[in-house]
From TrEMBL:
ATP binds at K574. ValRS has two distinct active sites: one for aminoacylation and one for editing. The misactivated threonine is translocated from the active site to the editing site. The keyword Aminoacyl-tRNA synthetase applies. Residues 18-610 form the Aminoacyl-tRNA synthetase class Ia domain. Keywords: Aminoacyl-tRNA synthetase, ATP-binding, Coiled coil, Cytoplasm, Ligase, Nucleotide-binding, Protein biosynthesis. This is Valine--tRNA ligase. Residues 895-957 form a coiled coil. It catalyses: tRNA(Val) + L-valine + ATP = L-valyl-tRNA(Val) + AMP + diphosphate. The keyword Protein biosynthesis applies. One of its GO terms (molecular function) is aminoacyl-tRNA deacylase activity. Belongs to the class-I aminoacyl-tRNA synthetase family. ValS type 1 subfamily. One of its GO terms (cellular component) is cytosol.
């Protein structure tokens, strides 16, 4: 028995237990042994994370695909898991230690600290997994993985060692994003560009061989910089090769102010003649662009900052080399001064010598660490790198050939642009939490990369015996006695970038490098659903690793979803205070309402503007379905054994079968094409408009009438259509549909495992071959069948039934529209004249007269050769239906009202177009504000069109 009121919280808690107890989402179920696999790997959320709206969208879309394919009979593996999130997790635990006034990380030591991190992970690391379950994610939770599980760690070590052996991992001194607070390199994704109001300093660099005079421009060249403190590391000045002002100076030297070092003027297109002075200082060790300029011209790299962002001058051999006498005094004075304090003092010193030409206010973007919020330094340091350029080539070819496709396709351009210009990938991090790099250093710094310490020691002993650093006998003793080799080699303290382990996610989670049955069956995966912001950091790297180690693409389709913004189109951020918590929405409206909202708004390539009112609206949609199912139950609607909808006799029954078939095809094709919004829109219209508003209403006279064969058929058909709705809606709203299936359908088994109403196409020969290979020689492929035998009603059509019921619906709809336009009160009944009606209309109209009169608020329906004078004429499926309105409405007053409303619409259009025509407004206003004005204009134009149509109709009644 269905409860009177729909209470999502009760249903969701109960259904979660039902699914878990029945192991409904487990991959490799016995009943799916012969089915084609369908695999998705979850983008592993950070173990420190909490469900945010991006997670909610991403996982809702994945779940729709998984539930859809599971109902289509596929052996679905939705692989869940979490990422160890190096920096984030280490910060959480360090903050916890500080708050509890306990010893810090360094006081505690590496081993003890890592024990605390694992302890925290065991206690608090499953938060986001439980939140994903609340959302309804149908992952195979028995296979949950963590990027630092023993098996995944084994895969990480093997990959590192093999890539190093192949020369694709190496150590190099390059610039990295350096966090001076966390004291580690970080990835580009962890850098936030923040707009800062600063200054642009124009500095005079004396030309060698000339006596410097601030009043004589021929004695110096002016460079513009936002960072005077890094000038101490300048090794060149760049000018554009076509800039006539400086062509005679190219190849000459300038003398670096305060320092006295001679540096060369080089011609390079990086310098922009239109910006600043047209000349730029080149500091290869402190700027990514300057690093490339320096490489092109063979300039020295002099790092003048230490890891904490202080000037490092006194013991800095690179800095002190080639300095004139007396310059070390400056090094002593400024050594270990913080970079921002040094900036101020250096500018003061430059001004005192006349080296500052002018200072201008300057707003520019400054990189900040997303977790430390400290200014990020481009820092020259030794790090481990992956030769991404080599690994990228097969990954590029796979997308170019169509083996892997992006949806929407325009993201392929972004992928190619990045992959074809890819830089070496810095994979080392100066942290303790993570996969420690499997590299050991000998007493002379020689590197030994190995999967185990024992293997590294074996390599080291062999090497040093050969080099005669130790004797053969010492080597044997050390191999046997750990105490005798203690300290002989030391392990690299750094850990790997989090993205390194997650790049292996599609195959490491299946048990690779072991040759497991899961790797054979579920790799490659079918689809990846993710956001555009990690195409480079995760998607591209999975492609590279998959192609290199598995010799196959990791996924055939990459679906890129857009951002979830607030209702005005602004990006959500804590600083703006516009973040919407999905858990709060689930608490208030239910997970189903939130899921349906996100799916309904997930148009390809378009960001989602999320308003709480939309979620509330889809909660009302769930209530509408709930009440419709209660109505069916109260009227004893049930599907009898052996019932075949295709054999129904009643026109209304055949019409709902026709509409159900149409919707089934529409929803299926839309999900297959990743058009989630179209699929959600189709099922929404069918449930709300077709089934609830029309079918149930048209069926009421029969259901409430005397017993008859028509009533029996109608009861069966109402129940059958309800069951099909529950199936089609299940991927979007799993909780309420599973509850209603259990309570009303009275079927054995779960809706989550029930067959989808439309059979998938037969498997291709390639799919069958893959299935046979996955089954293995001891588990032969028995049958290519993918689903249980079902009535494939999607092939059912009845144009005659659709024409009749469609005519009734269109007629009532248009009459209601006119009544609303003309402000006719509900209590006022109007007459209807069917003018020049066809024989078919004359034959069908009497069957529906009472229904039409009731639903359209009519006093009478009659036939005539032509429409009476003063009647509003409607064209319904090619025939005229007339509403005589003389005496029913005040035509003059109504015309005045419509003219007034049209005037308001014109004013709104003019106001919006005026703003949009203003170039300054479009250029300077926030993106969401401009978009809001466009929407206002479109809404006003649409409103005006409807008002003009109503005015035209009114003229007919004059």
């Amino acid at each position: 028995m269905i409860e009177k009121n729909y209470q999502p919280a009760d249903i969701e808690a109960r259904m979660s237990v039902v699914w878990e107890d029945s192991r409904a989402f487990k991959a490799g179920r016995p009943d799916r042994r012969d089915a084609l696999p369908f695999t998705i790997v979850i983008p592993p959320p950070n173990v420190t994370g909490s469900l945010h709206m991006g997670h909610a969208l991403n996982n809702t879309l994945q779940d729709i695909l998984c539930r859809f394919e599971r109902m289509r009979g596929r052996d679905v593996l939705w692989q869940p898991g979490t990422d160890h999130a190096g920096i984030a997790t280490q910060m959480v635990v360090e903050r916890q230690l500080m708050e509890r006034q306990q010893p810090g990380r360094r006081e505690m030591g590496r081993e003890k600290f890592l024990e605390r991190v694992w302890q925290w992970k065991a206690e608090s690391g499953d938060t986001i997994i439980n939140q994903l379950k609340r959302l309804g994610a149908s992952c195979d939770w028995s296979r949950e993985r963590f990027t630092m599980d023993e098996g995944l760690s084994k895969a990480v070590v093997k990959v590192f060692v093999e890539l190093h052996r192949d020369g694709l991992i190496y150590k190099d001194k390059r610039l990295v994003n350096w966090d001076t607070k966390l004291l580690t390199a970080i990835s580009d994704l962890e850098v936030q560009q923040t707009e800062v109001k600063g200054h642009l300093w124009y500095l005079r660099y004396p030309i060698e061989g000339k006596t410097f005079s601030p009043e004589d421009p021929s004695t110096f060249i002016v460079v513009a910089t936002t960072r005077p403190e890094t000038m101490l590391g300048d090794t060149g000045v760049a000018v554009h090769p076509e800039d006539e002002r400086y062509q005679k100076l190219v190849g000459k030297n300038v003398v670096l102010p305060l320092v006295g070092r001679k540096i060369k003027i080089v011609a390079d297109e990086y310098s922009d003649p239109e910006k600043g002075s047209g000349a730029v200082k080149v500091t290869p060790a402190h700027d990514f662009n300057d690093f490339e300029v320096g490489n092109r011209h063979g300039l020295r790299r002099i790092s003048v900052l230490d890891k904490e962002g202080c000037l490092d001058l006194l013991d800095n051999e690179d800095y002190l080399r080639d300095l004139p006498e007396g310059a070390t005094q400056f090094a002593e004075e400024f050594n270990k001064v913080d970079r921002f304090a040094a900036r101020k003092r250096i500018v003061e010193r430059l001004e005192s010598f006349g080296f500052v030409e002018r200072i201008e206010p300057h707003t520019h973007m400054v990189p900040h660490g997303d977790r430390s919020n400290s200014v990020i330094e481009p820092y020259l340091t030794d790090q481990w790198y992956v030769d991404a350029k080599t690994l990228a080539k097969p990954a590029i070819a796979a997308v170019r050939s169509g083996e892997t496709t992006f949806v929407p396709k325009n993201w392929e351009k972004t992928y190619f642009e990045w992959m074809e210009n890819i830089q070496p990938w810095c994979i080392s991090r100066q942290l303790w939490w993570g996969h420690q790099i499997p590299a050991w250093y000998g007493p002379d710094g020689k590197v030994f990369v190995a999967e185990t310490e024992e293997e590294a020691i074996s390599h080291a002993l062999g090497y040093y015996v050969e080099q005669e650093v130790i004797t053969v006998e010492q080597g044997r003793e050390m191999a046997l006695d750990r105490n005798k080799r203690e300290g002989f080699i030391t392990r690299d303290e750094d850990v790997l970038d989090t993205w390194f382990s997650s790049a292996l996610w599609p195959f490491s989670t299946l048990g690779w490098p072991d040759a497991t049955p899961e790797v054979q069956r579920y790799y490659p995966t079918n689809a990846l659903v993710t956001g555009f912001d990690i195409i480079f950091f995760w998607v591209a790297r999975m492609m590279m690793m998959g192609m290199h180690f598995m010799k196959e693409i990791p996924f055939s389709t990459i679906y890129i979803h857009a951002l979830v913004r607030d209702e005005k189109g602004a990006k959500m951020s804590k600083s703006k205070g516009n973040v919407i918590d999905p858990l709060n929405l689930i608490d208030e409206y239910g997970a189903d309402a939130l899921r349906f909202t996100l799916a309904a708004m997930a148009a390809q390539g378009r960001d989602i503007k999320l308003a709480t009112s939309r979620v509330e609206g889809y909660r009302n949609f769930a209530t509408k379905l709930w009440n419709a199912c209660r109505f069916a139950e109260m009227n004893q609607c049930a599907v009898p054994d052996g019932f075949e909808p295709a054999k129904a006799k009643e026109t209304l029954s055949r019409w709902i079968a026709h509409e159900t078939a149409h919707t089934t095809r529409e929803v299926t094709e839309a999900i297959e094409a990743y058009r989630f919004n179209d699929a959600a829109g189709a099922i929404y219209r069918f449930v709300w408009n077709v089934y609830c508003d029309w079918y149930v209403e048209l069926a009421k006279p029969v259901l409430l009438g005397p017993d008859s064969p028509a009533k029996d058929e109608t009861r069966a058909m109402v129940a059958w259509a309800r069951d099909e709705i529950l199936k089609l809606l299940h991927p979007f709203m799993p909780f309420i549909t599973e509850e209603l299936w259990e309570v009303t359908a009275k079927r054995e088994g779960l809706l989550a495992l029930a067959p989808w109403p439309l059979k998938p196409s037969e498997p291709t020969p390639e799919q069958l071959a893959m299935l046979a290979a996955a089954a293995g020689p001891t588990d032969p492929l028995i049958s290519p069948a993918l689903v249980m035998p079902i009535f494939d009603h999607a092939d059912f059509t009845d144009p005659k039934a659709e024409a009749e019921i469609g005519w009734v619906i269109d007629l009532v709809t248009q009459i209601r529209s006119v009544r609303a336009e003309m402000n006719i009160a509900p209590a006022t009944l109007t007459a209807l004249v069917l003018a020049g009606a066809s024989a078919e209309t004359k034959e069908r109209a009497p069957r529906w007269t009472e229904v039409i009169k009731r639903m359209a608020r009519l006093s009478d329906i009659s036939f005539a050769d032509r429409a009476p004078d003063g009647a509003v004429q409607l064209l319904v499926r090619g025939e005229v239906a007339a509403l005589p309105l003389k005496g029913v409405i005040d035509v003059a007053a109504e015309r005045t009202r419509l003219d007034k409303e049209i005037g308001k619409a014109d004013a709104d259009i003019k106001r919006a177009e005026s703003k949009l025509a203003n170039e300054k407004f479009v250029a300077n206003a926030a993106e969401e504000v401009v978009e809001e004005e466009r929407e206002k204009r479109e809404a006003a134009l649409a409103r005006k069109a409807k008002l003009l149509e109503a005015l035209e109709r009114l003229k007919q009644a004059s």
